[in-house]
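As agreed, record copied across for absentees:
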Amino acid sequence: MKAVIGWEGRLNNFFLKSLDLSKHTRPNAEGQDIGVADQQLLKSLEKAKADVDNALCDSFNTSAVMRILSDLVTKVNSAEKLADETVLSLARWVTRIVTIFGLDPEGDLTNSERIYLEDRNSPLLALVRLLDRSLIEARAEQESLAIAKAKAKLEQKAKEAEKERELRERAKIDPAAMFKTSEYKE
């Protein structure tokens, strides 16, 4: 579960960064110089595309694709001074892959300019839908079941400890007193 939360966190950071860029695009963003970091990321994107294709051809290897996306997004999140178009291109491709996996339930693969949607009622493009309500509910249910299971286990251990304590208390009784009845009074 922690791995899933970490993966979502990396992607959410990436999409939030991309959202900020799309809302606050610099005036000269179209003619922005592509630096060394941009070139490296674009090469990483091409490699990721090939790796994802291979993973999907390999019995739809979802875990490999998730790892590839995570590695690519980690590179983007840790890079500095990237051209806006580089980040937005990466965001569109990651959105496409995320849509293929059904993580964007209203995904439309025909619109290549759209990026992972957050607010479907907003006229502005949005990049991330932080968590789906059904996912939040499923996690809450799973957590409550785990808590209930842990509580039941603690209660069972407490009952067993109480039984053990009672047995030890009974064992402390003097055998002469234990068999003493009114018939054999002294």
